[in-house]
């Protein structure tokens, strides 16, 4: 048990070692450890968030599936209805068109009859006038007897 | 063992317990250094802290190498211990604790080196008559550590409480100053009480470590002594040496741990007022 200069030298060495450790070893090591701890914590949080997002997305997908199904059946029903309506409408249109064509054909026929009748009437009038002229042996002045002729024509 | 010496038990043990003393001035006395203690402790300090430093330089916050993981494990261990005891700014105390723990642990671990082989190497390779390889079995080392810690303790006490606060605590606690007519006597008792407390801390701190290491060394020497008695003795002493070495692992680590914890506790006490 003899205390001597060794003690002072050891104390100095101790001080230098503490300084070295506190300056060069501890801070970078703790920084590395703390950075990693933060990274791990962040990673875990991100994983948790991802999991939550996944389950949310799954829920949304399921909801979307349900929606899509109901929408599809709606569209199908609508299509069916539209088909029926279209067929019905086409049928109606065809009917009216047919009626219209029929009507116009009838009208044309009527007109044709009319025209033929008119032509016939003119010819009959001419014949009548010619007949009358022969009977009277003289020329009937169509100008002088225009009113008479028109009256006859009307009566035909 | 020196060949010219008469080999008996006393000279064997004395030889192994002699420091490689080197007087700085003629008369020696206080001005002597133990070269073995100094060299061993410095080499160990440089090796351990250098190792830590090398690992730290390549330290990454990503996936650590196995070495870095091991170092981090040790550092985290020290850090946890410090945080559980010390609730102030530990930017200084935690590295201090790490230094103490690592350094003392390795100085203690020098006890595992077989005493006679070390003596033989130093005798025949380095031509040194004496060599003690356990620096912590030298009171100079343990007192150097404990007095440094003691100095830090006083420093932090004064830094935190102010010189007046510290002196007041020295004189007015633990018995107080009331009643007034008794206060001179109380001041005396307070001072005495605190002085004893202050003295006992570095004493017990250093002597605990010194005693354990010294005793461990002596037991190794006694076992070695038995080996000199013949074949049976050598066989028995080999077994005993192994047993004591295994048990000593516990003591070495435990004493380093206790020394570190006491360091932290003492400095932590400097922060607390009575």
Task: Write up what this structure looks like.
The complex is a heterodimer of chains A (156) and B (274). Helix content of chain A is 91%, strand content 0%. Chain A has 156 residues and is an all-alpha fold. Chain A has a domain at 49-155. The radius of gyration of chain A is 59 Å and the shape is rod-shaped. Chain B is mainly α and 274 residues long. Chain B has a two-stranded antiparallel sheet. Chain B is globular. The termini of chain B are far apart. Chains A and B meet through helix 1 of A and strand 2, helix 2, helix 3, helix 4 and helix 6 of B.
Query: H/E order of the elements of chain A?
Result: HH
Question: What percentage of amino acids of chain A are in beta strands?
Answer: under 5%
Distinct helical segment count of chain B: 8
Distance between the termini of chain B: 55 Å
Please tally the helical runs of chain A, counting DSSP H or I stretches of 4 or more residues: 2
* CA(first)-CA(last) distance of chain A: 168 Å
- Please, how many domains of chain B? 1
Structural classification of chain B: mainly alpha
User: Order of strands across the biggest sheet of chain B?
Assistant: 1-2
**What's the overall average pLDDT of chain A, rounded?**
89
- Sheet having the most strands of chain B: 2 strands, antiparallel
Overall mean confidence score, pLDDT of chain B: 86
Quaternary assembly = heterodimer
Reading the helices and strands of chain B in chain order gives HEEHHHHHHH
What percentage of amino acids of chain B are in beta strands? under 5%
Task: Based on the model shown, name its key terms.
heterodimer; A: 156 residues; mainly alpha; 91% helix; rod-shaped; B: 274 residues; two-stranded antiparallel ribbon; 8 helices; globular; disordered N terminus
Element layout with pairings:
The complex is a heterodimer of chains A (156) and B (274).
Chain A: H1 5-136, H2 146-155
Chain B: H1 9-16, E1 21-23, E2 32-34, H2 35-57, H3 66-85, H4 93-109, H5 115-124, H6 139-172, H7 183-227, H8 231-271
Antiparallel strand pairs in B: 1-2
Helix pairs in contact in B: 1-7, 2-4, 3-4, 4-8, 6-7, 6-8, 7-8
């Amino acid at each position: 048990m003899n205390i001597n200069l060794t003690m002072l030298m050891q104390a100095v060495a101790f001080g230098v070692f503490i300084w070295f450790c506190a300056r060069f070893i501890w801070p970078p090591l703790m920084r590395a450890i703390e950075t990693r701890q933060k990274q791990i914590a962040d990673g875990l949080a991100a994983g948790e968030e991802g999991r939550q997002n996944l389950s949310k997305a799954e829920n949304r997908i399921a909801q979307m599936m349900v929606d899509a199904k109901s929408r599809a059946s709606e569209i199908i029903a609508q299509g069916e209805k539209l088909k029926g309506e279209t067929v019905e409408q086409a049928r109606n249109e065809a009917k009216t068109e047919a009626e219209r064509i029929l009507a116009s054909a009838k009208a044309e026929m009527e007109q044709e009859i009319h025209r033929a009748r008119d032509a016939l009437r003119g010819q009959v009038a001419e014949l009548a006038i010619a007949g009358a002229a022969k009977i009277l042996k003289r020329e009937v002045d169509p100008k002088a007897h225009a009113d008479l002729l028109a009256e006859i024509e009307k009566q035909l | 063992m020196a060949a010219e010496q008469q080999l008996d038990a006393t000279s064997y043990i004395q030889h192994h317990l002699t420091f490689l003393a080197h007087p700085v001035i003629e008369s020696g006395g206080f001005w002597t250094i133990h070269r073995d203690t100094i060299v061993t402790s410095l080499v160990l300090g440089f090796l351990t802290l250098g190792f830590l430093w090398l690992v730290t330089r390549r330290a990454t916050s990503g996936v650590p190498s196995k070495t870095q993981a091991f170092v981090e494990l040790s550092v985290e261990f020290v850090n946890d211990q410090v945080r559980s005891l010390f609730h102030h700014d530990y930017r200084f105390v935690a590295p201090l604790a790490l230094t103490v723990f690592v350094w003392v642990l390795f100085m203690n671990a020098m006890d595992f080196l077989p005493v006679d082989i070390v003596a033989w190497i130093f005798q025949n390779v380095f031509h040194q008559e004496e060599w003690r390889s356990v620096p912590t079995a030298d009171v100079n080392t343990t007192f150097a550590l404990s007095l440094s810690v003691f100095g830090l303790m006083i420093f932090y006490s004064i830094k935190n409480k102010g010189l007046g606060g510290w002196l007041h605590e020295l004189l007015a606690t633990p018995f107080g100053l009331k009643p007034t007519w008794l206060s001179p006597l109380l001041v005396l008792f307070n001072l005495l009480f605190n002085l004893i407390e202050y003295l006992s801390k570095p004493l017990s701190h250093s002597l605990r470590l010194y005693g354990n290491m010294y005793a461990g060394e002596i037991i190794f020497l006694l076992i070695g002594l038995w080996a000199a008695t013949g074949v049976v003795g050598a066989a028995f002493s080999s077994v005993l040496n192994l047993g004591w070495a295994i048990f000593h692992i516990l003591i070495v680590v435990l004493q380093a741990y206790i020394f570190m914890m006491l360091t932290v506790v003492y400095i932590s006490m400097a922060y607390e007022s009575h």
